[in-house]
Amino acid sequence: MDFEALFKQFLSGDVAQQASILRSLTIFLPELVLSSSIVLMLVARLVSLDRIIPTHWFALLGGMTSFVIVLFQFWEFGNSQTVPVEVFTGLAIHDEFSIFFRGFLTFFLVFVIALTVLTGIPDDEDAPDFYSLLCGAVVGMMLMSSANHLLMLFIGIEMASVPSYAMTGFLKGKRRSSEAALKFVVYGAGAAGVMLFGISLLTGILGTAQFSELAPRFQAVFANHAGMQDPATRCVALALLMIAVGFAFKLSLVPFHFWCPDAFHGAPAEVGGFLSVGSKAAAFALLVRLTTSLAGDGSGALSQLSLSSGLGLGLIAIITTTFGNLAAYSQRNIKRMLAYSTIAHAGYMLMAVSALLVLQSVQTDLVFQGNHQENGPRAMEGLLYYLCVYLFMNLGAFAIVALIRNQTYSEEIDDYKGLAQQVPVLAICMAICMFSLVGIPPLGGFYGKAFIFASVYEATNVHWFMWLVLAAGGLNTVISLFYYLRVAKTMCMDSRPADAVPVTLAASSSPAMYVMLVSGMVVFLGIIIDPLSKVALHAAHALF
Amino acid sequence: MGEVGLNAYLMVGAVLFVCGVVCMATKRNGIGVLMGVELVLNGANVNFVAFSRYTSLGLDGQTVALFVIVLAAAEAAVALAIALNFYNNHLTIDVDRGNELQG
Predict the structure, then answer these.
(1) Is A181's CB within 8 Å of B75's CB?
(2) How far A390 CA lies from chain B's nearest CA (Å)?
(3) pLDDT tens digit string along A243-293?
(4) Is the CB of residue B24 less than 8 Å away from at least one CB of chain A?
(5) Cα-flanking dihedrals φ and ψ of residue A159, to 5°?
(6) Helix, strand, or coil here: A79?
(7) Residue A201 and residue B100: Cβ atoms within 8 Å?
(8) What is the tens place of the pLDDT at every residue in A128-170?
(9) Is the pLDDT of residue B2 over 80?
(10) Residue A11 predicted with pLDDT over 80
(11) In chain B, where are the structural domains located?
(12) A276: which DSSP letter?
């Protein structure tokens, strides 16, 4: 059948089908707006319109418009219906969870664009390239957060990764930047290949690629099979392991974290901030979606699957946080330190996913029913709250690094000595971000960690291993205190050497305003928790 | 000639996958590593098409294979551009020579 025949069939097809496609397109509007802003930026350069209107306005407008549309969808969803809608014949799903993440990502996009405008990382010549890569990566991340099909999972991951590779190597003439990009692309392409092979095995054995059908098919295949002796079981285990490799790469979990410090060190700080928040958030959304749909209702063989994958993720989380925190301790370059801190934080957030899966495994168990029903959504609420706080505190830290780099051309921690005497605004905001990354009350980071540790504590009722996870989380928070506070101490307590490059930044200038806004949000989320945690809980309920 | 059967195709896919992984792990030339990635992706593609022919997966497998071909092309384009940029800065594409980022 050729395209013309297909098109005619669509035009003459039944009304219900056309209506469902139109509905899908309306739901897809935020992504469409972002994509068209990419086209607009490139066309604007073609006709030299970017000499009159700077390109970042197109990007900013596209980001804001799609954020507003997502907000509108959220409002509409709260008012009219509460049933998840499958869009594009079940390839993607539209529920509160995907709305939450699409809102999160577009909001983050606006902040990143504002930051790049303030620090001026892409010059006028390169701006269309940079912003189209940025918007393209965000579209990929939005697809990841609403994926409902293994094909969408892979497309989303690739669409988010490929622009990230290019953005890492964006400063073309720099040796370090090109080395970082090469390492990133080699590791990334390898991990994506392994993941795709795992997907092919999984779809082949289960006979479906739809998330919602994975759990029933899994149960049907394993209803009368015995343990690991069975080749089908072993094959599914291998496939899940290979898919986990892909996720571990995206989330920079040990032992697939090697790219992360190198990529962050070589890339501009703005790109580092974007990757550390955006791609992590989208990968967590996808991981949660895939694991909850694999775990299904947690009955029969699924309970075992859910428990063992939960414990496996818990083990990886322990190793990842411990490694990240220990390696961050000896870093001299601030971007490298923040990269290891990103690895450690991915470990903390993975603890929430692990707790969720362990709790889900006893969902049908009568002993654990009753008021324990709420535990799964609670774990998810913790993860979502943590991600929101993490957006501000990490973006704030990277923004300050970028602003100081613009004046001193240095990213070594030693060159930050005594900056409090010259630019108190930056020093104080950096201290706030660092304290929040440790998780000191009353800053936002504390509540994120508290929510996650509370759900891990709940999961200890199910399996003793979660005590180890909880202990590792607590211990790591203490370890991380040292290297975060070292940065704050260097900036605030030491005196500025006489030969150091002076840094000036008026407190009323727009970069200072930006930094104050971001770190103000960190403080705000630590004091007023209720609205955001309610929204997060609401979004989490969509999964169960 | 009888049907070849699913297992033969899966075997080809697995061999391609292993060749690709070995290639990625042992090659020092950046382009060689990228060729390994292509082998891995195409091994998965063989699996998808075989599964769609012999199991209940149906057309989904064929569709995924088509998408993967496009994605592999896009990824190769970006990867080659990055490799070229690395060459311009370092005058080599030996991945072991990229050792400035350490700590």
Answers:
(1) no
(2) 25
(3) 999 999 999 998 999 999 999 999 999 999 999 999 999 999 999 999 998
(4) yes
(5) -65, -30
(6) helix
(7) no
(8) 999 999 999 999 999 999 999 999 999 999 999 999 999 999 9
(9) no
(10) no
(11) 27-93
(12) I
Is B67's Cβ below 8 Å from some Cβ in A? yes
Cβ distance of A173 and B89 shorter than 8 Å: yes
pLDDT digits (tens, 9 = 90+) for A206-240: 988 899 888 888 888 777 666 667 788 888 889 99
Helix and strand numbers (H, E) in chain A are 22, 2
Give the span between the Cα atoms of A141 and A162, in whole angstroms. 11
Give the pLDDT mean for B71-97.
92
> Is the pLDDT score of A367 beyond 60?
no
Q: How far apart are CA A298 and CA A305, in angstroms?
A: 9
CA distances from A116 to A13, A127, A272, A412, A510 (A): 47, 10, 12, 21, 12
pTM of the model: 0.94
For B1-37, give the secondary structure using H, E and C. Answer: CCCCCHHHHHHHHHHHHHHHHHHHHHCCEHHHHHHHH
Between vectors from CA A357 to CA A354 and to CA A363, what angle results, nearest 5°? 150
Nearest Cα to A386, choosing from A347, A419, A412, A359?
Answer: A347
Predicted local confidence at residue B72, as pLDDT: 94
pLDDT value at position A296? 78
3-state secondary structure string across A399-437:
HHHHHHHHHHCCCEHHHHCCHHHHCHHHHHHHHHHHHHH
- Cβ pair B60:A151 closer than 8 A: yes
CA distances from A64 to A34, A100, A106, A144, A487 (A): 9, 15, 7, 20, 34
pLDDT in tens, A477-507: 999 999 999 999 999 888 888 888 888 888 8
R_g of chain B computed on alpha carbons: 17
The CA-atom distances, in angstroms, between A356 and each of A176, A192, A380, A530 are 40, 26, 7, 22
Tokens describing residue B16: 């391609």
ipTM for the predicted complex comes to 0.96
Distance CA B90, CA A543 (A): 49
Distance from the Cα of A172 to chain B's closest Cα (Å) equals 7
Taking CB atoms within 8 Å and a gap of at least 24, the contacts of A251-254 are A251/A280, A251/A283, A251/A284, A251/A287, A251/A346, A251/A350, A252/A280, A252/A342, A252/A343, A252/A346, A253/A316, A253/A317, A253/A320, A253/A343, A253/A346, A253/A347, A253/A350, A254/A316, A254/A319, A254/A320, A254/A323, A254/A324, A254/A343
Confidence of residue A373 (pLDDT cuts 50, 70, 90): low
Give just the sign of the alpha carbon dihedral A71, A73, A77, A80: positive
Cα–Cα distance, A59 to A114 (Å, whole number)? 10
Peptide bond into A268 cis (omega under 30): no
In angstroms, rounded to a whole number, what is the distance separating the alpha carbons of residues A97 and A293? 14
**SS3 of A81, please?**
coil
**DSSP, res A147:** B
**Contact across the interface for A204 and B57, Cβ inside 8 Å:** yes
Percent of chain A with pLDDT over 90: 64
Evaluate whether A211 touches A154 at the Cβ level (below 8 Å): no
What pLDDT, in 10s, does the model give residues A231-245? 888 888 899 999 999
Residues near A154 by beta carbon (within 8 Å), at least 6 away in sequence: A192, A195, A196, A199, B64, B67, B68, B71
Q: To which residue do tokens 């005594």 refer?
A: A418
